[in-house]
Amino acid sequence: MKTVNPGSGPLIIQSDRTLMLETAHPEYTDCRDFLGLFAELVKSPEFIHTYRVTPLSMWNAAALDLPFQDILDGLKRFSRYEPPVNVLADIEAWHGLYGLLTLEKDGDERLRLRIADDIIFNRIQHNKDLAHFWDEPAADGWFVESGNRGELKQALIKAGYPVKDVCGYVDGKKLSVPLRDVDLAGAPFALRDYQRDAADAFYQGGRSTGGSGIIVLPCGSGKTIIGIGVMNNVSGHTLIIATNNVAAHQWRDEILSKTALNPEDIGEFTGMDKTLKPVTVTTYQMLTHRRNKSEPMKNLNIFTQNGWGLIIYDEVHMLPAPVFRATTEIQARRRLGLTATLVREDGKEDDVFALIGPKRYDVPWKILETRGYIAEAVCTEYRIPLPHDEEIRYALTTKRNRFRIASENPSKIDVARELIENHADDRIMIIGQYISQLETISKALDVPLITGKMKTQDRETLYADFRTGRIRILIVSKVANFSIDLPDANVMIQISGAFGSRQEEAQRLGRILRPKEKTSRFYTLVSKGTDEQEFALNRQLFLVEQGYKYEIRYF
What we know:
- It is a single chain.
- By secondary structure, this protein is of the alpha/beta class.
- It folds into 4 domains: 11-97, no CATH class; 101-165; 193-363, 3-Layer(aba) Sandwich (Rossmann fold); 372-554, Rossmann fold.
- The chain is 36% helix and 19% strand.
- The chain contains 20 helices and 23 strands.
- It has a 7-stranded parallel sheet. A 7-stranded parallel sheet has the order 19-20-18-21-22-17-23, sandwiched between helices.
- It is globular and about 75 Å long.
- The relative contact order is 0.10.
């Protein structure tokens, strides 16, 4: 890094551990990329972006072997003023905490929790909520029954103590997964350098220090290919959990296209077929299905069947609570989480850390864009006034109903129509939250609509028509948020969304980021001066966090 004069940096570090970054500063980009290694963006108004450092963000940095000295040097280099001593002390303590508690094997039936700090040892020893885990004391910790591996890690992280798990994994049933040099479409195939690096960072040559954790990469960068690369490394029976049936079919097709596995090696555990194969693809909905609330979720038993050597959680930030509970029981299986963002709307990032594993690999979106691996994107928010009668409805209704009235602003149809006319040669997706709104737009624009109520076969037919160019515009509900492969889409019009969901923003932008010659355009339509506009500020966080310039225009 180049040096700058003291007092001229773009970063102001406050004593409450918030970091304020000046966007107009010439070193903004370098500082933003540096902060992304260990901090979370929480506010992104036009001139000053606010980050915060948390214990979890520092534990992920430590798990990536980012030295604290590098963080300290960067903070001192970019800070406009001398960093507060208490902040440096806090983040050093958080960073140093990862690795002080180590869980390792001690024979076949029990584990050993080693604690390399006397104060932490004493606090844990007197924590009544943890007492039931201890089998017997050891010189530097406790022996623990192997069946409590997941629950212990989860309980300890809730108490503020991350565990470095080096117990290793069972290999499961073996399955060779050779990669093709030419895929079934006749195109040359090989993992890109960052895809291979991500797969290797997870597997770590089969050592106990690897084998569990999260790969964070943008949509369109080939996370499925990374999953296939990990399958090639592990060479074992594999369970893949996707977000929906269409995504499950895409996983199956990609595996068949890119590996030498045969169709009979791959099964889909869905409502139509529940046959377990060496590679089995299912969905979160299928795993948690039950006919009524009083029945158990019997399909969760799939985790302990078939001798899995690897379990892949696609879009791991969507992991439902019952799957968390099942995951506590399978800590001896290798577990790979794939996601575009670690942010969860329910705040359970610590459960992902404890039960799936820490972040193993991460590349900023803008770096992949610069290298041509994902499309360049321009993000624009249009603020649209409510019609007079809707404005009256909005003013008179309850706070609960205001967001939907604003989201379903009928004036958005005219804006969408104009945007479509401006992109006469582009492949356009219109996406929204409310089915009635999408049905109205579909009828007004005479454009086909895909919703969750549509049969999977009919959905796939429309997706295929869009891919081949038989249709140029497609309206989709939130079923298209995740794992839908539409590589030629280069314009997204977001007509409404789920309040301030940053993870939804990540997925929707990802639908148009496959590499292409044209710049991709991501439009968000919000009602001016309403609750929807306020929630859009939170969604905007994700885009700014990834380095995109976010334009605001008025209609």
